[in-house]
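**Entry details**
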Amino acid sequence: MAEGKLQPKQDTVDTLKSGQASQVVTGIVTTMFATISVIEEAARLKANFIMAHEPTFYNHKDDTDWVKNNKVVQQKQELLAKHGIAVWRFHDYCHSLKPDAISYGVAKKTNWLPYYKTGELILTIPAASLQQIAQHLKSSLGITHVRVIGNLEQPCTRVALLPGAWGGQRQVTAVEVEKPDVLIVGELSEWETAEYIRDGRLLGGKTALIVLGHSVSEEPGMEWIVDWLQPKIPSLKITHIASGDPFTWL
């Protein structure tokens, strides 16, 4: 269970992106991204507080002047104001919980909790082929397509689970230090981690790669936040709305 004595962070992106801290909360929605669809569904549910794991305005610090006169930003702000919805980013504190709420939620959704250890990147699962693991992730997480580098028949037991976007340096470091059979990530820079994995295998290495997609890889964590938070504030209805995969696969 994700608990822990969290200390206030001086430099954090976990701030209000819309709304006022003084407004009375009528309902809570958890999600990965506060998309237009999520905002409209929250309004339909009469929930005026959205906890979003990732940015609302398309850059890490939600700088609304990141691109001057951004019409999409302006329209989104108008929609949030129309419905009186506050959006708060739950990212840094979410990952500071023990265990990390996102990785815990993903392990739970994949039925890998028996192999999950707080603070560790490696899960030692029963031996399965790379193809079987990819298929299991697709079915358990509701993902349409994943991308893979590796021999689909190779057996895997040591799994490095890094949902979301850890960045190339941390992803490559995880492989160098932990030497997993397969590295599972949400997203990556193709010119960094993917090329490292490709060359590593051509040089005789065995680590394979599965790319899930950023949003779908962390969504189970924000879904699990409902179970964690609801008992703490039973008077408010908390609903998870998946922001989903933005891509259509052809």
